[in-house]
Specification:
This protein is globular. It has a single domain (4-307), classed as 4-Layer Sandwich (Glutamine Phosphoribosylpyrophosphate, subunit 1, domain 1), CATH 3.60.20.30. A hairpin with a 2-residue loop joins strand 11 (280-287) and strand 12. By secondary structure, the protein is α+β, with helices and mostly antiparallel strands. The two termini are 24 Å apart. It has 9 helices and 13 strands. The strands form 2 sheets. A 9-stranded mixed beta sheet has the order 4-3-2-6-5-1-11-12-13. It has a 4-stranded antiparallel beta sheet with strand order 7-8-9-10. Helix 2 runs antiparallel to helix 3 (100-110). The structure holds glycine. Residues 166, 184, 186-187, 196-198, 217-220 line the site of glycine (GLY). Residues 166, 184, 186-187, 196-198, 217-220 line the site of glycine.
Amino acid sequence: MKPVIVVHGGAGSIMKEYEEGYCSGVKRAALQGYKILAEGGDAVSAVEEAVVVLEDDPLFNAGHGSVLNEEGEVEMDAIIMDGKDLTSGAVSAVRCIANPIKLARLVMEKTDHMLLTCKGASLFAKAQGVPEIFGEQLITERSKERWRKNLNPGSNPVAYQLGLGTVGAVAIDSQGNVACATSTGGMTNKMVGRVGDTACIGSGGYANNSVGAVSTTGHGESIMKVTLASLILYYMEQGMSTEEAAEAGLNYMKTRVDGSGGVIVVNSTGDWTAKFSTKQMSWAAVKDDQLHYGIYTGENKIVPIAASPQ
Ligand code: GLY
């Protein structure tokens, strides 16, 4: 099997001045994940590594750069899933850790559970030796500014949310195993304790070797209402291509609950797609040593990976 990785940096509306940063972030993440696959590494490690790159990039709404809750604090959700045996690990409403996706993987591999939240997740992180950082270290000027704007009565946090980037990755490795990973700071000015789609299996992501893997981004409550990742895999099981299934899932979410978002998909034969119903979504993919990327509908720029910044 030829390995494939697809990465997204969130669906929404990206201001012109940030477009280049979003594009270069997702390209770097895809290349980093692909390197693992090209060296014979597994899909779970590749998606985790790609998401770590984006959690560490302050431009994206995950890890450093996460949006703030109504009290001006960071609370993050993340999920990872292994399509080989359907094991998955997630964390929700976690604070004071740099890389929630790594903690989600530890939940998957070191516990009998699938989702740890809040204080329990923090105790587990400590027990696993995951370093605790000051919450302020995750906060950027940009997220503070958005938070302040949304404190005004009459503001629209959903609109602001869609301008920021939940991050995710899907991959298939040379053994034919698929995996997904998604990580987010959630929705800006959300209630304390609000958990979105990202931590919820079948909503923020799903991976099953017999069909493929999906990672989602967009309005979390809408994504949960239609369990978007599972819905797309169901359509694929019924015979749709990755592209048709992604389109059908996003259309269903729009018509049924008026929700917008984006998805990345890979199937069990290595076909892939990146689709969104918002104005933009930064995404990148690597297959056959070619790097694909785009930000607007229909855009698919292609360069050989040898010519890309590593
Ligand atoms: N899709 C990210 C969130 O709504 O939390």
